[in-house]
Design a protein that fits this description.
mainly alpha, two-stranded antiparallel sheet
């Protein structure tokens, strides 16, 4: 093993020391800020393991199913944090993190993928059919999430019942969309496989690593959420900003790593599929599931979001629909998407 490989190996595996350290700090009742920071840092190597094991499993499937797997397991940490946060009574933070993840995956993830890809390639092409279907699904998500919000704002009444009815419609639509892309019209969604990827893990090893890393991620999610209340009070941050920016970034590391890598390797179609599929899955599946799970956690979560959050989501979907219309992207479009995300994050900091 060369010295460069030794340094790379040491740097990579030193991160795993943070997992027992964060657990020890939590059990020893250390300062919540220290507990939160170490828990966040401990999630980084776990997200790397989730991303790598998911990649190894996805390489044994079609490219579209592989992108769905990346989106699904990439959202696993977010789902676990949401469960613990709802249990802790932080429903507004959870709702903000839902909108934040949708915005993050569309603007920051895809923007960074286009930007890094643009460093090597003057222009990159992607499947207009794939992006067109995804854009339509995102518009449906906007419609579904907007109705309870508008109802709550206009009437001043609870949107719990409406949210459950809308959640059923969104969930069914999402499941039928999977049938469309995986069965009846799969020929429209064929992205080229990255030829630089190799099967370095066996099937059992990949599955075992994925299960163990998800289990540890669940533990770290519990520790992270438990430190949120003191952190919010000490840092004078709103639940909305923490959910929409901080939690959204923490929980979407795997998709970002995978998507940026594909953009760098001139496979921007797969980057777009990962980002948009992740956003669609959060809006049409994760959010509806949380609506029905929340009563089991002694809480009630609706799909009535703050109007400013819905405006940010609507702008996001409009922008990606426009940029994805021509099937060609470049580094400047990546910069534009990232800039819009930064502007939205700044706005929510001051709200």
């Amino acid at each position: 093993m060369t010295s460069a490989n030794v340094r790379r190996w040491t740097f990579q595996y030193l991160w795993y020391i943070l997992i027992p350290i964060s657990i020890w700090l939590y059990l020893a009742h250390f300062d919540p800020m220290a507990v939160f920071i170490t828990a966040v840092l401990a999630v980084i190597p776990l997200t790397n393991l989730i991303a790598k094991s998911t990649q190894q499993l996805s390489m044994r499937t079609t490219t579209i199913l592989g992108s769905l797997m990346n989106a699904t397991f990439g959202n696993a940490i977010e789902f676990m944090i949401a469960i613990f946060a709802i249990q802790a009574g932080l429903t507004e933070l959870v709702k903000a993190s839902i909108i934040g993840s949708i915005i993050l995956n569309i603007l920051l993830l895809i923007g960074l993928s286009m930007l890094f890809g643009g460093f090597k390639y003057r222009e990159q092409t992607f499947s207009k059919d794939s992006v067109g279907v995804a854009s339509t699904m995102l518009l449906i998500a906007v419609a579904g999430l907007s109705m309870p919000t508008i109802y709550a704002v206009i009437t001043g009444k609870s949107a719990i019942i409406m949210s459950r009815a809308v959640s059923i419609a969104l969930g069914i639509t999402y499941l039928l969309s999977l049938v469309f892309v995986l069965v009846t019209h799969r020929h429209l969604f064929v992205a080229k496989r990255d030829v630089t990827e190799e099967l370095s893990w066996g099937l059992k090893q990949s599955a075992s690593v994925l299960l163990v890393s998800i289990g540890l991620a669940a533990l770290e999610s519990h520790i992270l959420v438990d430190a949120l209340h003191p952190l919010i009070d000490a840092a004078h941050l709103s639940e909305t900003f923490v959910g929409l920016v901080i939690i959204a970034i923490i929980t979407n590391v795997p998709e970002h790593l995978a998507a940026i890598k594909y953009g760098w390797r001139n496979n921007i179609t797969l980057s777009l599929e990962i980002g948009m599929n992740s956003a669609i899955q959060i809006a049409l599946f994760v959010a509806p599931v949380l609506v029905f799970v929340s009563p089991l956690l002694a809480a009630e979560m609706s799909l009535a979001f703050a109007p400013f959050q819905m405006v940010a989501m609507i702008l996001t979907v409009m922008i990606i629909s426009y940029i994805g219309a021509d099937g060609i992207c470049n580094w400047l479009e990546g910069v534009q998407l990232v800039a819009v995300y930064i502007i939205i994050a700044i706005a929510f900091y001051f709200i």
